[in-house]
Amino acid sequence: MVKIMANNKPGFIARPMDTLKNSLEKNIMIDVKGSRSYSGILEGYDIYMNLVLKNVSETINGENKGVFDKMLLRGDNIIFISPSGGD
C-alpha cells in the first residue's frame, strides 16, 4: 500500500484494487506485453488482476485490429491500466 496525496486529501491511500472497483462498468485502457493495447468496459477482475472486458477494441503496433464482444486479459501480461476520464 502506498500513501500519497491525491484529490487534495492529505493521507489519502490509493490502492490498485480500489481503482479497479471504481472502474467497474466504465471504459478503461490497458497496455500489455507485445505492443498490444485494449480499450473496453471493465466487467470484472480478481486478486491477480485478471480482467474481463466487454466491447473491446484491440490495437497492435498502433493499428486497430478489431472489436471483440468479450475478452479475458491475464494479469501478469498487463503493463498498465488507465481508467478513462470521459465516462
TrEMBL record:
<dbReference type="InterPro" id="IPR001163">
    <property type="entry name" value="Sm_dom_euk/arc"/>
</dbReference>
<feature type="domain" description="Sm">
    <location>
        <begin position="15"/>
        <end position="87"/>
    </location>
</feature>
<dbReference type="InterPro" id="IPR047575">
    <property type="entry name" value="Sm"/>
</dbReference>
<dbReference type="Pfam" id="PF01423">
    <property type="entry name" value="LSM"/>
</dbReference>
<dbReference type="GO" id="GO:0000398">
    <property type="term" value="P:mRNA splicing, via spliceosome"/>
</dbReference>
<dbReference type="GO" id="GO:0003723">
    <property type="term" value="F:RNA binding"/>
</dbReference>
<comment type="similarity">
    <text>Belongs to the snRNP Sm proteins family.</text>
</comment>
<keyword id="KW-0687">Ribonucleoprotein</keyword>
<dbReference type="InterPro" id="IPR010920">
    <property type="entry name" value="LSM_dom_sf"/>
</dbReference>
<protein>
    <recommendedName>
        <fullName>Putative snRNP Sm-like protein</fullName>
    </recommendedName>
</protein>
<dbReference type="InterPro" id="IPR016487">
    <property type="entry name" value="Lsm6/sSmF"/>
</dbReference>
<dbReference type="InterPro" id="IPR022901">
    <property type="entry name" value="snRNP_Sm-like_arc"/>
</dbReference>
<dbReference type="GO" id="GO:1990904">
    <property type="term" value="C:ribonucleoprotein complex"/>
</dbReference>
